[in-house]
Amino acid sequence: MKAKTLFFIFPLVLSLITGKAFSQTKKLISVKIEWEDFNTETIVDVGCDQFKDTFKSTKQTKSLDNFDAVFEINSLLKYFTKEKLYKNIDVRGVITLNYKEKQTEYCFDQFGHFYKDGVLLSNIPLMAFIKGLINAKYAR
Fold first, then answer.
1. Which residue of 18, 48, 113, 116 has the fewest C-beta atoms within 10 A of its own C-beta?
2. In what order do the strands lie in the sheet with 119-122?
3. Residue 53: pLDDT above 90?
4. Averaged over 12-28, what is the pLDDT?
5. Which residues contact 51 (CB under 8 A, 6 or more apart)?
6. Using the 8-state DSSP alphabet, how is residue 33 labeled?
């Protein structure tokens, strides 16, 4: 009886251990970028929770679902680094990453600082890509 029990339990335990090791990473499906002109001045710094209401009538939006753009953004996500000193950022945009089962949202300023879940991050390569997309929109 013990041998039969081990025969069924061992594969189950093995699959649980190896399943975690070989599980796929989240697949990025699309990206939405909302931004306000970086030259826009405000009396006080705009926080993440105030961005959409503050710039409701003037913000612009670009949705990306083509493979090349989504792939490029996904490859730039690895450059996020946590800022050592916390400082307030004057938010001028929001990037929404749409995965198969969830959304992740970061707000950003014009200098490559990003904010999510109480953590201030930096990602200069991603900011350069976002600025390129924004400037391409103006060039049309």
1. 18
2. 60-64, 28-35, 93-99, 103-108, 113-116, 119-122, 81-82
3. yes
4. 50
5. 34, 36, 59, 91, 92, 93, 94, 107
6. E
User: At 44, phi and psi to the nearest 5?
Assistant: -125, 160
Percentages (nearest 5) of helix, strand, coil residues in the chain: 40, 25, 35
Which of 123, 121, 32 shows the shortest CA–CA distance to 77? 123
By the 8 A CB rule, do 111 and 127 touch?
Answer: yes
Band the pLDDT of 15: cuts 50, 70, 90. very low
CATH number of 24-139: 3.30.1490
Q: Is the pLDDT at 21 greater than 50, yes or no?
A: no
- Split at pLDDT 50, 70, 90, the class of 85 is confident
Strands 93-99 and 113-116 come out as unpaired
The percentage of the chain sitting over the pLDDT mark of 90, rounded to a whole number, equals 71
CA distances from 103 to 42, 58, 117 (A): 29, 24, 13
Q: Which two tokens stand for residue 13?
A: 């335990």
